[in-house]
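Standup notes, protein team

Yesterday: finished cleaning the Mesorhizobium hawassense set.
Today: Cation:proton antiporter structure.
Blockers: none.

Input for Cation:proton antiporter:
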Amino acid sequence: MENVWLVSAVWLGLALLASVISIRVAMSVALVEIIVGGVAGNTIGLHLTEWVNFLAGFGAILLTFLAGTEIDPTVVRKHFKSSMSIGVVGFLAPYVGVLFYARYVIGWPWPQAQIAGISLSTTSVAVVYAVMVETGFNKTEMGKIILAACFINDLGTVFALGVVFAHFDYWLALFGAVTAVALWMLPRFAPWFFARVGHRVSEPETKFISLVLLGLGGLASVAGSEAVLPAYLVGMALAPAFLADPELPHRMRIIAFTILTPFYFLKAGSLVDFHAVLSAAGLIAVFLAIKMATKFVGILPLTKAFRFGAREGMYTTLLMSTGLTFGTISALFGLTNHIIDQQQYTILVTAVIGSALVPTIIAQRWFQPSFKPIEDAARSARPAEEEA
């Protein structure tokens, strides 16, 4: 029988190690956790117990929700064309490129090629949001444009997975109806509830949000979907309430980044089998190259068309080239439903994890722009207005 306390100590020890390394090398802790998880999984072995899977899954849900709360409706309306165009092309370009390569070059059957295309069409909300929170870019207008484009990109992935492989039955209809009602009611009920309970040590606001996320996540699982899918939409629905009360998302980020998300990122790294990776390294590299190349061909010209600076355009394109949560979910969906085999799953998941690492490291190291937070920009504009 496993000692749950010692296992917990190992996981949190690895999370602490990743935090220290990330500070020393000035790299996003999310990326370091993936690397540490991969090394640990292939050396000492990490036990993926039910409680570990729950914490990792809840971490992905909460992180996706928090990313949704960063979508400022005002910024989205102001930059609707750029966010929508970048998001749609960010999905379509790699989906078509990978799909056709898998089907007509290496000869995968059509359903397997579709799983490959969907898995590598994504961007990583989890990685992008984690990086932006660390750097403060989530408080900038450019950061909010990128997060909105990420949402649209992943919405295309979810739509494709749903249309191609979903079972259209009573449970799916019930899940859709309950989600729609929740999205309509939450912006009206949540602010009233938050005002009534106030900021308490017992954190009723956090418990209420967790209840909604877990409830919708449970319905999604019953409907044959994924628990993380409705979290982004709930985050967007509650974005105005969170923008009005910055202390609430701050407290939830502490919970997420301290306990939950390390399990998610460490687990993602531990799923990579180094032996299987070495045997299929060439194909993994090709899939990763196709994903990044098609993202660049599709997105970079759009950033120029919408008058992004050269550095901002490269940074946006690189972050849109990432992938993790929905890419892993799509590959796991294919494995669980016997559409792809274990070897194909390893190839796709490793390419997905590679896309979380390579573009983000390049973006942070060489193309990180100097953004001015929206609050600072407003503050610096006031003296000029007063002088005028």
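Follow-up from PR in the comments: The chain has one domain: 4-373.
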